[in-house]
Structures are given as C-alpha cells and as structure tokens.
Design brief:
about 425 residues, alpha/beta, FAD/NAD(P)-binding domain, seven-stranded mixed sheet, five-stranded parallel sheet, 10 helices, about 25% strand, binds flavin-adenine dinucleotide
C-alpha cells in the first residue's frame, strides 16, 4: 500500500514543527511554502544597509517555553539560544532615570520578593499577591478586570512583561492568556524565566536545522508554492490548487494548513479566526553597544520598550505598535535612537539603521479575539490547522506556534492510525 502523504501548507514555525514531528512517522511529508524562504514571521535575512544578518524582529524566549526547547532539541539546535543562565532582567525608567534588575530565585518558592534589591523598586510585597487572582481569571475577562492596571507594579513589571507576551496593550488583553503565560514562567520560579535569544539569528536556530533534518528524513520542502484554493467533497478535502498545478489528494492523504489566520480563513470555508491584528516595530542600529550594556534592557516610560545588545549592533522592539505603522521610518529611527543614546550614553549621531514594521505581527490578544481561535480539527476529516492563532491556550508566540504544530502532528498521526 502507498504511504499516506501529509501536505503541510506554510513553513513558519507551526508548519516546521508539524513537519519535524511527522517526519518520524511512516507518512511522506511535503511542505509547501509561498515565499522563497522558510520561517515566516520568525526569520533572518542579510541587510545591506547595516551589513549584517538580522532578524525580522527580536524574539525573546523564556526557559519555561518547553515546546520551543524540545523542538530545538529535536532539530539539534538548542545551543543556538543563549542567555545569562538565570532570571535576571535589567530595567530603566526614562521618567525617573531609575535603574533596577529583577532577580528571581530559581525555585518555585518566591523568596526573591522578600529581598528589596531583587524586586521592582517602589512596590510593596503585598502588591505582588494581587497577581494570584490572575491564576483564577474568568475566560472572557480583560486583565484590567482582574488586577490593578494603574499602580507602580503594573507600570514597572506587569505591563512590560504582558505587553511582550500578548503584543496587546495588557489592560485590554485577555486575562486568561496572561495567566497562561504566567503559569508557565514566573509562577514556576526563576528556573522557567531565564531569558533566551537566538544570538546568531532566528533562522540559524529555528529554521535551517529543521530544513536539514527534514531533508535527511526524506521530507520535501517546496518553495514559491502558494496554495490558492482547496476543493472539498463530503467531509474531505480532495484537491490542493497551486498557482501552476493542482494535487489530487489520495484517500489516506492529509493536509495541515499552517498559514497565518487571514490566509487560512480564505482557504477553509466558514473558518472562524481572530480578525484583528497587532503590529510590532523593530529598529536595528549598526553600532556596538558600550561595555556593560545589559544584554536585554526593559524600558519604562520611553518610546523604546526593549533594547537587545548584540556584540556588533543594538536592536529595539515596540509591541502593540499600530500607532507607529504609518510613521516615516526616518522619524522612527531618529526617535528610537534618542532613547537608546540616552540610555546607553552613546553619541546622539544616528548610526546606520533599519526599521522593520510587521503590521500583522500577531492577532490582537483581547478576550473577544481569543474567543475566535479555532481548534486544530476542522469539519473536514483530512484537513487540520496549525499556526499561532489556533487555540493553544497561549498567546501568539514561538511557543504557541510550535505547540500548534505539535498538536496538528499528533492529530494527523491519530487519523492515520484510524485509517
Ligand atoms: C516582529 C515580531 C516579533 C516577535 N517577537 C516574539 C517574541 O519575542 N517571542 C515569541 O515567542 N514570539 C514572537 N513573535 C511571534 C512569533 O514570531 C509568531 O507567533 C510565530 O513565528 C508564528 O508562526 P506561524 O508558523 O504560526 O506563522 P508564520 O510565521 O506566519 O508562518 C506561516 C507561513 O505560511 C506561509 N504562507 C502564507 N500563505 C501561504 C499559502 N497560501 N501557501 C503556502 N504558504 C503560505 C507564509 O509565507 C509563512 O512562511 C514575534 C513576531 C513578530 C512578527
């Protein structure tokens, strides 16, 4: 009997993680990617302006991102993530010029909160207890309905933390998604909160080793193959329509649609997905950071929110950045640099730069949009969904995307066994 074929549409991290998992099975795997490059919203490219390979956006992981780390183990790339090896995150407040470093102890008993020099300055110990309410937050609640979003703890810890995780103004964000992030990271103690970055680039960590592994296992990756439509009959998808050809699906073949939400909604009839998106703006500056610059700096009351110091350049991130999408890049670069120069004591002269605006970086993580996330299974028995917008219970992150791919792979294996 011929081997079943699993067609995976989209080679972002959701599609790649599904492919890596399924490549261990007896099925033939074919990955169809619309563009010339795998990685989707998590990719590197060579930029001539700053003469370096840079990422579309700085991606921060935490050591509690267990699926992301397991995926890196599977593709042999865990070493590509680097970090301080402990939960230590530096912050600066541009309104008061204060600096502090949060130092969370490794174990689950949070004694770091008792030590003044380890916690957020100007915050009482009691204030942290309010966060416990989040762990029992009702599903449809906004963060502001569960914890205080006007005090110092919010401004200096919860807002930066949840803005990075949800890519949505946290007070309007889903309390359930914030709670899921908290449960998998800070609530487990510092051991689950070591910051990690792909210092040599996202593609070298998450994408290229996966493609090599897939090739070794006999899977095919086809590029510049945009899926235009799917034909259905009864409870099955029967054909995949690409620009120049079509593939008729065999009785035992499966399809995993691992595109962004708005593309999936155009391919799969009646599919309900989140519709509102939220932008991220990244600035890359071609200048080595001065000695002593923390590798990751959270900024409060600035335009810039996070500063990443790489050996040869400085990068910045602004999340929930729809307000900057139409701003001229020259102005964004100049304004960001003003913050960076003030925080690092570098000269005011703007080095060469690159601004990357990702308009649809993630879905808007409000309770209303979260309620529109579909499950992995669809009403077609041979068509499954993967992608950071699928209902993983996590926000749209690397961890969520990888977990959605794993869930699709697990269900595909189950369906193949039933046949
Ligand atoms: C600037 C930025 C910063 C971020 N920062 C972080 C962070 O710090 N930490 C974190 O964890 N997450 C972060 N994220 C989120 C993370 O990158 C995404 O959640 C994740 O990469 C989404 O993966 P995906 O596979 O679901 O979707 P995508 O990456 O969008 O992959 C979908 C793929 O499908 C392809 N495709 C689309 N249409 C078709 C078609 N018709 N046929 C074939 N292929 C198609 C696309 O080209 C793409 O390659 C950030 C995202 C951005 C944009």
């Amino acid at each position: 009997m011929d081997r079943p074929v699993v067609h995976i549409i989209g080679a972002g991290l959701a599609g790649l993680s599904a492919a890596v998992r399924l490549a261990e099975s007896s099925a033939s795997i074919v990955l169809h990617e619309a563009t010339r490059q795998a990685g989707g919203r998590c990719r590197s490219f060579f930029d001539e302006t700053i003469n370096a390979t840079i990422d579309n956006g700085n991606h921060l992981l935490l050591s509690g991102n267990r699926s992301a780390l397991a995926y890196l183990d599977a593709i042999g790339a865990r070493d590509e993530l680097t970090g301080p090896g402990r939960c230590e995150i530096a912050f600066a407040d541009m309104a008061t010029n204060e600096r502090w470093t949060i130092r969370v102890n490794e174990g689950p008993l949070p004694w770091w909160l008792l030590v003044e020099g380890r916690r957020t300055p100007g915050v009482r110990l009691l204030d942290y207890l309010g966060a416990l309410r989040l762990l029992w937050a009702p599903k449809g609640a906004k963060l502001s309905q569960v914890i205080s979003c006007s005090d110092r703890l919010y401004e200096r810890l919860w807002r930066p933390f949840f803005l990075a995780a949800l890519n949505t103004e946290p007070k309007d964000g889903s309390a359930a998604l914030a709670a899921a992030t908290l449960r998998e990271t800070l609530a487990k103690g510092g051991r689950a909160c070591h910051p990690l970055v792909a210092a040599n680039g996202l593609s070298r960590a998450f994408v290229d080793p996966a493609l090599r592994l897939l090739q070794k296992r006999g899977a095919q990756a086809r590029f510049e193959r945009r899926l235009r439509g799917v034909e259905f009959s009864g409870d099955r998808a029967t054909s995949l329509e690409f620009e120049h050809d079509a593939i008729a699906l065999g009785e035992r073949d499966l399809v995993v649609v691992a595109t962004p939400a708005h593309i999936a909604a155009g391919l799969v009839p009646d599919l309900v997905t989140p519709q509102q998106t939220s932008a991220i703006v990244n600035g890359h500056f071609n200048i080595a950071p001065p000695a002593g610059t923390p590798p990751i700096l959270g900024v409060v009351n600035g335009m810039v929110e996070w500063i990443f110091a790489y050996p040869d350049r400085i990068s910045t991130t602004i999340s929930g950045a729809d307000r900057f999408i139409d701003a001229p890049r020259e102005k964004l670069a100049a304004d960001l640099w003003r913050d960076i120069a003030a925080l690092t004591n570098l000269p005011d002269t703007l080095p060469s730069w690159r601004i990357i605006k990702e308009k649809r970086a993630t879905f808007l993580a409000t309770p209303e949009e979260a309620a529109r996330r579909p499950p992995t299974a669809t009403r077609w028995r041979n068509l499954l969904l993967a992608g950071d917008y699928v209902n993983t219970g996590l926000p749209a992150t690397i961890e969520g995307a990888i977990r959605s791919g794993e869930a699709a792979a697990a269900l595909a294996l189950e369906r193949m066994e039933q046949q």
